[in-house]
Design a protein that fits this description.
This protein has about 160 residues and is α+β, with helices and mostly antiparallel strands. The protein is built from 3 helices and 12 strands. One of its GO terms (biological process) is pyrimidine nucleobase catabolic process.
């Protein structure tokens, strides 16, 4: 299997593998930036750390990668519209209707979210056109939990009933 075929195989393999949905936001000198990710994972409890990946070091991803700190929001089903908005370049973001506030530390926080983790990058590893970030958790903001959301086959979906 050549590299091109392996890449297509990887896309196909993960297309039907559900992932949680996160929204990462940061404040930059140019203003707030944010992007939707489906790669947030817990790494360690001691020290508290998580990981995620972004596909380019430009635009919103570049802003997050250069920021001193950022917020990793773990989204649920009521946030599908916001997840879609932040997944598409050029969409209107950080509107008052979406429910944003600025933390005293400067990062944009989505108020109506089940959990938002304030983080600082510990390690960044470039892999092709992607960057894997390992981030230390500095603080947590908890809200009311709602129905979980997943990303599968390029769509945001409800998780459904327990097995």
């Amino acid at each position: 299997m050549n590299e091109f075929e392996a890449g297509d195989a990887l896309k196909r393999a993960f297309r039907d593998h559900p992932a949680g949905v996160g929204l990462i936001t940061a404040q930059t000198p140019e203003g707030p930036v944010g992007l939707t990710v489906s790669s947030v994972a817990s790494v360690a409890v001691d020290p508290p750390a998580l990981s995620f990946s972004v596909t380019r070091a430009t635009g919103s991803a570049g802003g997050v990668l250069r920021a001193d700190s950022f917020i990793v929001h773990l989204l649920d089903a009521r946030h599908a519209d916001i997840a879609q908005t932040f997944a598409v370049s050029g969409t209107e973001r950080f509107t008052q209707e979406q429910g944003w506030e600025m933390l005293p530390s400067g990062e944009p926080l989505l108020r109506d979210v089940r959990v938002a983790l304030r983080c600082r990058s510990l390690h960044q590893l470039e892999v092709g056109s992607s960057v894997i970030v390992v981030a230390g958790v500095l603080d947590a903001h908890f809200g009311e939990a709602h129905e979980p959301m997943s990303y599968i086959d390029r769509e945001f979906r409800h998780l459904g009933d327990k097995i």
